[in-house]
Write a structure and sequence with these properties.
single chain, alpha+beta, tt1808, chain A, six-stranded mixed beta sheet, three-stranded mixed beta sheet, 5 helices, 22% helix
Length: 182
């Protein structure tokens, strides 16, 4: 299936599908906690972003290239003018956030992050726990290597790519997601 065939076909489906080398893969449904964490993050980012950036939710695709693969991150932010008029997918995200679940965690940490690292525009990749409160951030250093920092409850989260801070507790506001083990 070509990328255009994929876009045409998926528009007629009730479910969402990611696209990899001509093959489509169905997206699993998420939990309420997963969806609310994504919404909290989207809302927090949108409220703080400059007018030249847009926050996108899990209904919006990221294309690794114009030919794919095409994925559905839980939250993405682009500040690139080329994405501001995109209709089917963005290609130049600055920040991508994945909310982890038991069924997606290994892929989000491994294969999906490997795909995202191919995006030269990507400056930060954030993994947020939905079963235990956790935030992990990978950011691209000036030497083009990826650095890591884990955050815990009580921390102020630094999003370097957007020059923003988030309060850890706001991500989990209104949710009964357990704290990490001591």
């Amino acid at each position: 299936m070509s990328p255009q065939d994929y876009f045409n076909w998926e528009a007629q489906q009730e479910s969402r599908y990611e696209y990899f080398g001509g093959q489509v893969v169905a997206m699993a449904g998420g939990t309420i906690a997963h969806g609310r964490i994504g919404l909290n993050l989207s809302t927090l980012l949108k409220a703080q972003l400059s007018s030249g950036c847009i926050t996108l939710n899990s209904d919006c695709k990221v294309g690794i290239s114009k030919q794919g693969p095409f994925t559905y991150p839980d939250v993405s932010v682009t500040c690139d003018k080329r994405d501001l008029t995109a209709e089917q997918f963005i290609q130049f995200p600055t920040l991508i956030i994945e909310v982890l679940s038991a069924s997606t965690e290994a892929y989000d940490r491994g294969g999906k992050f490997a795909l995202y690292r191919r995006l030269t525009s990507l400056q930060e990749y954030v993994l947020v726990g939905s079963e235990v409160q956790s935030v992990e951030i990978f950011w691209r250093s000036p030497s083009n290597t990826w650095e890591f920092r884990a955050y815990k409850p009580g921390d102020t989260i630094q999003l370097r790519s957007l020059t923003l801070t988030l309060n850890f507790e706001q991500i989990y506001a209104g949710l009964a997601v357990p704290l990490p083990p001591a």
